Amino acid sequence: MLFEIVTTGSMLGVLGASYYKKNNLNSDHDKIIKIADNCGLYTKEEKIRLYRRRYNKEKKFTEYVYKIPLGLELEDFQDKYGKFKDGLNNRSVRKINLKDFKELKLDKTILKQIQNIINNREPVNKEIEMEYDGMLIFRVFDEGLTKDLPYTKEMLDNCKGWEIPLGVTYKEFVKHNFEKMQILVVAGQTRYGKTVFLKNVITSLINNQPDNLKLTLIDLKGGLAFSRYLNCKQVNTVAKNSKETLEALEAIHTEMVKRQEHFLSKGWEDIGEAGWTERHFVIVDEGAEINGFEKKDQADRALYLLGEIARMGAGIGYRLIFATQYPTADVFPRQVKANTSAALCFRLKNATQSMVVLDTKGAESLPVGLKGRAIYQTDCDRLVQTPLIKNGFIDGIIKPHIVMKPRSESSEPQNSKEDTKAGEYTTEFKEI
Ligand SMILES: Nc1ncnc2c1ncn2[C@@H]1O[C@H](COP(=O)(O)OP(=O)(O)OP(=O)(O)O)[C@@H](O)[C@H]1O
């Protein structure tokens, strides 16, 4: 009996799926034609004409190739992107999930359960992409960007060197490479995923570069978010207030100046040429708090030092991540903004804030309440879903890297010599 139901169910599922695909193909093409018509994308003599259609099974998209009327160009169609996208997503579809048949309960409600499976409808979530290559290429992806991306070990294994898993777009996995883009600004309204992303960065780097990573964590939200990393051997400092922040930044600055002199004396152009493998990451969570330091001269000094790390640091092995929920012009040290090559921007309050971070509007229009959704800006802007890393997963990864460190009230870096004054520590340069 069970076998019959499952077999019948599977057959219905297969038929349903192929019915869905066939109709889906036709209706998407019909819709594209109709939307183009309604948007005035035709001339007196001609309308767009389908030349070829092909389904890419692996990447799950249908490619429609259209001949477009003379006098129209790709941009005319791209301008109507929103209309095409909404038009292709304006309904729900019957979707039979085969795995639901496996979960059937053998009781008197069985027919009802099968009916529910067959009548199941889900909103469509397609993404489109347009390109011109003598013809207009219209790619309709079966699935748009996911709303939910768990962080996995596979993602981590996929990252090499100084890469970390940044997230996914609707069509690919995206990594951020700190060797190529050494400064990263992270912005977003509260509770949209900044801290989770920073924990992703720290955990990924600890796992992939355990012997080369050095971390200075400046957590001006009280130090709780980063507390689980406190005893990791890669963590040099966790600074939680203005005093500790200044001490840590002064120490880094002193070290940077010495390192620069050393490079000069050796004739090395950068850390690559020096052959040094260590990278020192300075991660600031809630950079806007610096402006709120009690003494203005302390705030100015801290912003200046961060600016110096951004200006001088990249070539000699320093990396900076500056995160804030209040991206106004005065929050960003000028040098940080000027030297930033990448930004990850979650939803922001308004277009002005978006302009500060991305130099363009858009972050204010990201979906309300959708955590982890962001614009990743490098040489282009990409809409991404960032991975959600769970604390249990983090603890498993960092466990082998935890060492017992002496508890100290001060945030003086672990490798500072006892006789150095606060804000000063000695770096021994090792040639390899
Ligand atoms: N990528 C993600 N995917 C799904 N949910 C997420 C993601 N990132 C964060 N969240 C959820 O949102 C909550 C808030 O995230 P997070 O603490 O990173 O926010 P935040 O931007 O740092 O906020 P605040 O500025 O107030 O510290 C998390 O506890 C988690 O439940």
Automatic annotation (TrEMBL):
Pfam families, A to Z: FtsK_SpoIIIE
FtsK domain mapped to chain residues: 171-355
Keywords of the record: ATP-binding, Nucleotide-binding
Taxonomic superkingdom: Bacteria
Binding-site positions, ATP: G188, Q189, T190, R191, Y192, G193, K194, T195
Coiled coil: none
Record field: transmembrane: none
Record bears the keyword Nucleotide-binding: yes
PANTHER family xrefs: SPORULATION PROTEIN RELATED, TYPE VII SECRETION SYSTEM PROTEIN ESSC
Protein name in UniProt: S-DNA-T family DNA segregation ATPase FtsK/SpoIIIE
